[in-house]
Design goal:
The structure holds 2 protein chains of 2 kinds. Chain A is mainly beta. Helix content of chain A is about 5%, strand content about 45%. Chain B has helices at about 1-15, 35-50, 60-65, 85-110, 120-145, 165-180, 200-220, 230-240, 260-270, 280-285, 340-350, 360-375, 380-385, 400-410, 415-425, 450-455, 460-470, and strands at about 70, 250, 275, 330-335. The chains are: A mainly beta, B mainly alpha. At the A-B interface, strand 29, strand 31, strand 33, strand 35 and strand 38 of A face helix 1, helix 2, helix 4 and helix 16 of B.
Amino acid sequence: MKKIALLLAFFAIGLQVLMAQTKEISGTVTSADDGGLIPGVSVSVKGTTLGTITDMDGAFRLKVPQDAKTLTFSFVGMASQDVVIGNQTTFKIKMTSENISVDEVVVTALGISRDKKSLGYSSQNVKEDQISTVKASNFMNSLSGKVAGVQIKKSNNMGGSTNVVMRGNKSLTGNNQVLYVVDGVPINNEIGSYSSQNTGAAGYDYGNAASDVNPDDIESINVLKGSAATALYGSRASGGVIMITTKKGTAGKKGIGVTVNTNISFKSIDKSTFPTYQQSYGAGYGNFYGPNGDGWFERRDINGVTQKDDTKNFDWVPTTEDGSYGAKFDGHPVYGWYSVDPESPWYKQTKPWEAAKNGPITFFEKPVTYTNTVSIDNATDNGTMRMSYTNFKTSDLMPNSDLHKDNFLVNGSWNITKKLTATATANFTRQAATGRPSTGYSDNIVSNMRQWYETNMDYADQKTAYFATKRNLTWNYNSALNYPIYTDNPYWQRYENYENDSRNRIVGNMALNYKVTNWLDAFARVSVDDYAEKQEERRAVGSVATAFGVSRANQKSGYMRRDITFSEYNYDFMLKFNKAINQDFNLSGILGATERRTNLSRLSSSTNGGLSVAGIYSLQNSVSALPFPVEYESKIGVRGLYASASLGYKNMLFLDGTFRQDHASTLPTNKSTYYYPSVTGAFVFSEVLKQNWLSFGKVRLNYAEVGNLAGFDALLDKYTVNTPFVGASYSLPSTKNNPDLKNESTKSLEAGLEMSFLNKRVGFDLAVYKTRSMDQIMDVTLSQTTGYNKMYVNAGEIDNKGIELTLNGSPVRSKDFSWDINVNFAANRNKVVSLYPGVDNLQLGSFQGGVTLNATVGQPYGVLKGKDYTYDANGNVIINASTGLPVKTATATSNLGTVNPKWTGGITNTFSYKGVSFSFLIDMQKGGSIYSLDMYYGLYTGLYPETVFTNDLGNPVRDPLVGSVTAGYGPKSGGYIIEGVNVKDGVSTPNKTRVDASTSDFAFGTAARPHRDFVYDASFIKLREVSLSYNIPSALLTKLLVKSATVSFVGSNLWIIHKNLPYADPEAGLSAGNIQGYSVGSLPGTRDFGFNLKFNF
Amino acid sequence: MKKILIILTVFMVVLSACQKLEDLNKNTKDFTTVPGEGIYNGAIRNLLNQMYTFNVNNNNTQLYMQYFAETTYPDESRYDMVTRPVPANHMNALYRTVLMNLKDAANVLTAAPLGGIDAKQRKNQLAIIEIMAVYTWSNLVETFGDMPYTEALDFGIPSPKYDDAFTIYKALLTRLDAALASMDPAFGGMGTGYDNIYGGGVAGTAKWIRFANTLKMRMGLVLADKDPALSKTIVDAAEPKAFVAGDKCALTYLSASPNQNPVYTEVVVSGRFDFVVTSSITDPMNTLNDPRRNYYLWTKVDDTYKGGAQGMPNSYASFTHLDNAKLKSESEVVVMDYAEAEFLRAEAAARATYAVTDAATHYNNAIKASITSWGGTTAEADTYLAQPAVAYATATGTWKQKIGEQAYYAYYMRGFTSWLTWRRLDYPRLKGAEKHVAEVAGIPLRYSYPVSEQTLNGTNYKAAAAAIGGDNALTKLFWDKESYDTLK
C-alpha cells in the first residue's frame, strides 16, 4: 500500500521535476497528545498542488522545488501547521488536536467573523458533518438535540414545516421563530400554510420557506441565541438567529476539487407512534340500527332494501358509522359497502364479520429519499469559485406523493485589484411537490385512522375497489342515498383529491469590499430573495363535501389555486475597521446602514358550487360564478443605521457595544423611528490565572435591547367585502386595528462562564439569561361583546429566564481510539407578567372539544385550559352517583398544563477508531403538555384496546349493565367502576355506580371524561441519531484519483426510548407557529435509515 | 478619509431619494370606506344565517325543540354546549357580525352626504337598522339573560360589564318606540338591492312599521308574567298596528354559495346526513292528520312519517328526514309572520287582560295562515281545524296548552321562535333527553354563557352568573316564571 502511495506521489512529483530544481525532504508526524505516530496526514507545499500523505508509520518523503518555502501539515481533528522549510530536509512534526471551543472563529451578526474567545455572548456552532451526514429534507430537523436552548418541533409531513424557538416564546401573538441568515443575508421563512391549518382544523402543511436551504451546501451553522448577539439584526432577530455559512472555494487550497455525495434513505413507521386497535368489536355505536332501531346491524335484503318482513332481511354493516362500538366479531356473513355497487368485486357478496386483516397501517407506503450532490470548487490567486448541484427526491408515507427539489448554487470571489474584492452568490431552488398530506381534524385520512374508523374495514379492499372502478367506493357509505357520508375512499382521496405546489426561488447577493487602508474596509452589498409559488388544491366530482376554496364553504368538488410571490431586497453598506491602538489595545468595529424592502403578494381563487365537468381542474370549470378572489399585498420597509465597536485589551478583556436606529414603514410616522443598544463584556481569566489544570476560562456578561416593528397594515381598519347579496355587502373586520402603535421591545441580560480543563479534554459552557419583552404589538383577544374578536394594542409583558449548559469531554484519546461526549441541557421558564388593562387572559388557540391554549397573567405562555375533575375535601374524585361518571368542573377554565417543556437536553457520544467513527445522539424533553384530540374521539369511537377489557366481575366491559346500583348488579353485568366518591349532602361515600359501556354514548372519551384525561405529558427520550462512518484510507483511493472517500450509515429517530403520549409522537406538531400542544391526526413517526457515500476528487 | 466621505455621501443621497417609508404601509387592496347600506345588507344576512342555520356548531334550537334529532352524534341533542362552542358562536355572530355592523352602518349613513335622497328617507333607513338591532338584542336577552349592553360594542372597554336583562329589555322597547316614531310612511328606506326583506320603497316602509309593531307585541308578551302592567301598555299599543293577513318578515336567499339558504347549506350542500325528524313532532301531527306533514319537506318511511328518538342516535335510513330533493337553495327564512302575530293575539286575548279579544278566531287565523303559507289549501286547513282535538273550544287543556301545542307545529324550522314560545307557555310538554350531559339535566331554558366569556371577561362573567341565579342552562330567565321538570 505504502508503495502505491509512494509511486503515485513519485509520479506526481516527477511531473514537477521537469519544471523546477527539486530537493527531497522527509520526516515523521506524531501526536502531541500521546506521542503516537499519525498516518494519513496531508503534507503539502503551501501555494502549490505538490503534496503527499504520511504512511502507516507516520512518515513522509517528498520532493519539493528548491524555492519552496512552507510545508502545510493537516489532518482531520488536528490543528493545521505551517512549517518553514528553510534548509531543513528532515522534519519531526508534533500535531495537536483541535479543540473547537477555543480559538474558534465563528460567524456573528452581519456575517462578521470573530474569534469566539472575544465574544461576550453565547453562541453555539454546528459543523457540516453534523448536518449533512444525517440528512433531513428540512435541515432544521438535523439540529434537534444538538444545540442547548433551541426547541425544535418537526412535523412528519412530507416537506412539512418545523417549529424552531429559542429561549422560549418572547412574543405573545407575533412571530417567535428564529431568523435564518445565509452568508450574512436574512432569508424568508414564510410559513406557507393558512390559519385553518396551524390551528388544527384542516389544510395542508406547505412547509416553511427556510427549508429551501440545501444541507449539502452548509459549511457551518452558528446559533446566536441572545439579543446581544443579534442586536444588529434588530427587529427580526428577537427570536434568535441561525447563521448559516455556505461552502466556498477555499482560498489557499489551490486546485480543482470535486466532491460527489450520494445519499439514499428509507423510512419505516415507528409503530409506537401509531394506534393499536382493539380486535373484538366492529362498526357501529350501539344497538340502535335496523327497522326497529334496536339492532347492531342494519337489516336489508340483498338489494339493500329494507323489507317489512324481517325474515327477508340480512345483516348489513352500519356503513354510515365511523366508530367501532358495534357488534362483537363472530365471523358470521354480513353485507357491507362492498356489496352495493355493481362494479364492486364483491357485488352482492358477504364477508365474515371479523377484524380487518389489513388495518390502517397497511395504507402507508415505504418512502425513499435520494439526495445527490456534485460540487466543484477552485481557488486561484484571483479568487475562488464553487458550484454545486443537488438533486433531492423524496416520497411520503401517503400514496401518490412526491417532492422534488433541484438546487443550484454558485458562489465565488474575485480579487479585482489588490484592494478591491468582489463576491457573489446565487442560489436557485426549484421545488415541486405533489400530494402533501392533509393535516388537522377535517378531511384528513390519518384523523380517520386515529379517531373515526371501523375496525372491520380492510384497507386492501378499499384499494381493490378504487383501482377496479376509479370511483369513490367508500367504506363510509350511505346506502340510502347511494353516496359517501363523512369519509371518502382513502385511495380516491389520495389519487383524485391531491394538491400540488411548486416554488422557484432565487437567493443571492453581490458584494464589493474595498480595503481603504490596512485597518479600514468599505463594504457594500445588494441581496435578493425572490420566489414565486403556486399551490393548487382539488376535489374530484363524487367526493364528500368539505370546507373548500376561498370561502371555506362546503363543496363536493372544486379547484382552488393560490399564487404567491415574495421578494426581499436588502441593501447594506458598512465601514469596518480593526486597528491596534498600541500593544495592548485593539479597537474594531462597524458603521453601517441598511435598507430592506419586503413584498408579499398572494392571490387565491377557487371555483364555487362544484365543478361543471369532472376531471378538469380549472377556474373556468365552476358551476356557479366565482367568488371574489382574495388578494393580499403587503409591503414593508425598514431603514437601519447602526454602529458597533469592540475594544480588546491584551487578548484578555473584551468590551463590545452596538447601537441601532430603525425606521419602520409599519408604524405611525411620529413613532416609526426607534433605537436600541447592546453592550457585552468578556474576560478571559485563564490569561491571568495561568494554572496548568485550567486550559481556558472566560466569563461574559451582556445587556441588550431589541426593538420590533408592527406587521403590515396594522394601523387602519378595513372592511371585508362579501359576495354581493343582490346589492353590495360589506362587514367590519374581526380585528380592530390601532393607529397609535409603537414599536415593541425586548430587554435581556445574560451571563456566561466558559471553562476547559486538563489540556482541553473537559470543558463546559454555561449561560444564564433573563429577558423581558414589553409593549408587545399583539392582537389581544377581546370579549366578543365588544364587537370585535381581537384588537391590536401595545401591551403585555412576558418574562423568560433560563439556563443553558454544554459539556464536552474526551474520556479516551489515544493514538487510534477516541471517545468524545457532548452534552447539552437547557431549561427555560417563562411567565406572562401582564396583558392589556382589563384583560388577564389571551386565548391563543381554541381546539375541538373545548380545550383552549392561553396566555394568562401569572402563568407560563401556552397554558392548556379545559374541564377538570372535581374533588371532595379529601382529594377524592367526585363521581356522579347516577351515571358513574366523574363530575367535571363547571367551567372549562382549569389549568391542564403548559405546553413548555421543563427542560430539554441531548447527549452525543462519538467513538473513533482509525478511520471508523461511530456516534449516537440521545435527545430528550422533560415536561410539557399536549392535548390529544385523537384520544378524545378515539376512545369514544371504541378504536383503542383501552375500551375493551374484562371488568371486575370477570365480564367484558361492553356487556350491558345488569341491575343497578340501588338494586345491585348481577354477576353477568358489564360496565366498569371509576374509583372515586359520591357526594351527597356533603358526605362522601365510595362510588359503586357502574359506567354503562354497552354503547359508545358515555362509556369512554369525549363526554364521559373531563378534558384532563386527554392532556398528556409530552416528555420523551429518543435515540435521535446513530451514524457509522468510515473514511476509506486515501492510500486505497489514490489510484482511483480520489482524494478522500467516506462511507456512512445513518439512522435517525430510531427508537423512542420513552414517551407518555399513546399512539403518537409527542413532537409531531401541526405546523410552525404559536399554536402548539395539540395532537390531531398526525402521521406516524418514522425511523429513517440512510446510506451515504462521499467522494472528493 | 475623503473616499469614505464620498461613499457615505453617495449612500445617503440614494437613501434620501427613496420614497417616504410610511407610504409602503398603504393597503392598496382593501376598503377603508364603504356605503352604509352595504354594511346593513351584510349584517342582515349574517343575522338570519345564524338564527336559522342547522349547523350544530352555531344553533341547536331545532334540536332542543325536538323538531329534529341527530343521527350518529347526539351530543348537542343532549345539551352539550361545550364541545362545540354553540353559545360563543351565537354571541359572536350576533354581537360582532350583526350588532357591531348595524351600529357602524348607522354611523356611516349618518355621516354620509344625503346624495340626492330625502332626509326623511335617511331617517327611515336608520329606523330600519334600529328595528333589526332591537330584534337582535331581544334574542340575546331571551337566550342568555343578563348580557353586556351599555358597555358593549366598544373596543375601548375590552371587558364590558353585564347589564340586568329586564333593564335591557325595557331599554330595547324604548328604542323600538323611538324608531317607530321617526319613520315616515310617505318615504322609502334602503336603496335597491340592499333591503332584501321588503325591497325598499314606500311599500317597504309600511311593512317595516308593521313588523316593528309585531316584534313589539311579542316583546310585550314576553313580559306578561314579569310585569303585567307594562306588558299591557306595550301589547295594547302594538297589536292594532301589527301584521295583517299576508304579512311576513322573511329573507329570500340566492342560488349560489355563499348566499344560499342556511338549511340548504347544512343539509344538502354539506352532503351530511346528520338529522332525522323527531317523533316529538311526527307522532302528534300523525294523530291530528296535520296536512303540513306533506309540506314540511319530509320523506316517508313505510308510507308514513316516522320520527326518530330525540336525544338518541338514529339510523338515517329508518326515519323520516328532510328530503334533499325538495330543499331549495333560494328558500326563504321567516323571521316573523302573520301566523305568529295571530298566535300572539290569541294568547293576549286568552290572558284576558289585554285590549284584544276573541282568542278562538285569532287561533284559527294563525293555524290557517300557517298551513297555507307552507302550501296547504284553505280546505285542508278547514278540515284540520274542524277536528275536536284541534278546535279551540274542544282541544285538550288550558289555553296555554292549546296555543302552545299548535304554535309548536307551526314554528317548525324556526327554532328560536319555538324555544321562546315553549319557555313562555310551557307547552307542549316535551320530554327532555334521558341521556344528557351531566351539567344540563333537562331541556335548556337558556344558553349557558360562552367559555370565552369565562376566560376573557371573567370578573364580569362571575357577577352576571351570580345575578341571574347561576350560569346553568336550566336557570330560568327573568320573564320565565314557570317551568316543569322535563325529565319526569
